[in-house]
Amino acid sequence: MSTVVERLNERRPVFSVEFFPPRDDDTDEAALWKAVRQLEPLDPAFVSVTYGAGGSSRGRTIRTTKRIADETTLAPVAHLTGVGHSKAELRNVVGWYAENGIRNVLVIRGDPPGDPAGEWVPHPEGIMYADEMVEMVSACGEFTIGVAAFPHGHPRSPDLETDTEHLVGKIRAGAHFAVAQLFFEPEYFLRLRDRLAARGCDVPMLPGVMPLTTKKTLAKSIELSGVDAPPELLRRLERFEDDPEGFRAAGIDAVTKICERLLAEDVLGLHFYTLNRSTATREIVDRLGLADSPVPVPAVA
Ligand SMILES: Cc1cc2nc3c(=O)[nH]c(=O)nc-3n(C[C@H](O)[C@H](O)[C@H](O)COP(=O)(O)OP(=O)(O)OC[C@H]3O[C@@H](n4cnc5c(N)ncnc54)[C@H](O)[C@@H]3O)c2cc1C
Q1: What is the set of active-site residues?
Q2: Which atom, in ligand 1's list, is nearest to the CA of 51?
Q3: How is domain 4-211+267-288 classified at the architecture level of CATH?
Q4: Which residues are in coiled coils (predicted)?
Q5: Average pLDDT by stretches of 10, the chain with 301 residues
Q6: How many CB atoms lie within 10 A of CB 117?
Q7: For 53, phi and psi rounded to 5 degrees?
Q8: Residues with Cβ < 8 Å from 295, sequence gap 6 or more?
Q9: How far is the CA of 276 from the centre of ligand 1 (A)?
Q10: What are the sequence ranges of the domains in the chain?
Q11: Ligand 1 proximity of 110 Cβ (cutoff 6 Å)
């Protein structure tokens, strides 16, 4: 099987997807696995599984990632965050990943539990920044390591240049690829890619994309990107305030346009934040011609 980095460097653009581990609830579990099975034939380059703050989802992240490794043809990437963990605990989790055949890890510092914008207090025997975790995971064995990137700069960073230096620090510490936080305007991602290139960093970096299917996904995208949506996009979507189907159609059109612009700029692929659903992602992937083979996409959300 190709490694994640080999897949990202394929000559044609690829796509990848992010899931979160479902709570121990049959409905959530079934929804996730339906999405996994529906995306599998489209051959995503990898599927990543998030890690709850402070290890709150540790067991579920390991279980979900292992099941993807064991029961599907997909390449799983397990997230790992440093919040609330000592370095010894982090090494243990990395050891469990390895024992379960998981060799791709997205290494993230994480946010303080409760209030993500609150004061960051490291575990007394833990890490301060993600670059230390990258070094630690590299030292644990043969892993393909991804890190988080922020087209608008991380909210805690004083400016874009400093933020870029810190991203470069994570890459120089041993990261093999990066996945970007959400943004609405491709120029912000492309400028970050230019800033990295100017510093001699050419690891693959994927833009993060969330299908705008509902008012809730729009609000989530604004929250995660850390910026307001462009007024033109808001005006287009506001027309569908009381028309969920119209909103979904306009939102998917808008996201498809963003993706088209990124692909025209030769991005290596697109990383979809799926919220454990697949229909909208499949629709966009299909429109962009990124699927391995054309796959029928149902008309309903
Ligand atoms: C693709 C992606 C996936 C994510 N997955 C998860 C997840 O699964 N679970 C979860 O809880 N959260 C997740 N997050 C959110 C993430 O935890 C937060 O955005 C967090 O605040 C930043 O993590 P980081 O790894 O970028 O931190 P860091 O790289 O450590 O950066 C944090 C801040 O410190 C600065 N900094 C970095 N290194 C240094 C240094 N050496 N010296 C001084 N300053 C430095 C940075 O510029 C930044 O301002 C994800 C985010 C992204 C983009």
Answers
A1: 18
A2: 8
A3: Alpha-Beta Barrel (3.20)
A4: none
A5: 87 95 88 97 97 82 94 96 95 94 95 88 96 98 97 97 98 98 98 98 97 97 96 97 97 98 98 97 97 62 45
A6: 9
A7: -55, 135
A8: 41, 42, 282, 286
A9: 22
A10: 4-211+267-288
A11: yes
